[in-house]
Amino acid sequence: QVQLVESGGGLVQAGGSLRLSCAASGWTFSNYVVGWFRQAPGKEREFVVAVTQSGEATYYKSTVEGRFTISRDNAKNTVYLQMNSLNSEDTAIYYCAASPMITSLGAATSYWGPGTQVTVSS
Questions:
Q1: Contact at 8 Å (CB) between 23 and 75?
Q2: Distance separating alpha carbons of residues 35 and 39, to the nearest angstrom
Q3: Cα dist from 73 to 24, 70, 107, whole Å
């Protein structure tokens, strides 16, 4: 059974850090591009960051570049999102998604996790 599960969310003060994890099971994780999306209250889900299959390339939303870092450990079937210097605009549900190609990441055909809540208090 294909599964993605996020963890590591929580409540943090502005300026603080969190590390999210996305664990995969039931498929060949290393064949997939993996990314993080987020959805804030009353807003549409948006792309945050992605990493290619072997980790050789990463893509960041401009407002998180320099603060967030994505990495992956294919041996552990896990992708990590280190989030530093968090601010209130980062408050959202964070979703992990996977797709064979970067161009289809985030589409309905992607695999999705259930999400983890990140709340940044000011």
A1: no
A2: 14
A3: 11, 11, 23
Give, as one character, the DSSP assignment of residue 85: S
Q: Average of pLDDT values for 27-32?
A: 89
Question: pLDDT tens for residues 51-103?
Answer: 999 999 999 999 999 999 999 999 999 999 999 999 999 999 999 999 999 99
Residue matched to tokens 């994890």: 21
Query: Backbone phi, then psi, for 16, in 5-degree steps?
Result: -85, -175
68 burial level (CB within 10 Å; 0-12, 13-18, 19+): buried
DSSP output for 17-78: -EEEEEEEESS-GGGSEEEEEEE-TTS--EEEEEE-TTSS-EEE-TTTBTTEEEEEEGGGTE
Q: CB–CB of 10/119 below 8 Å?
A: yes
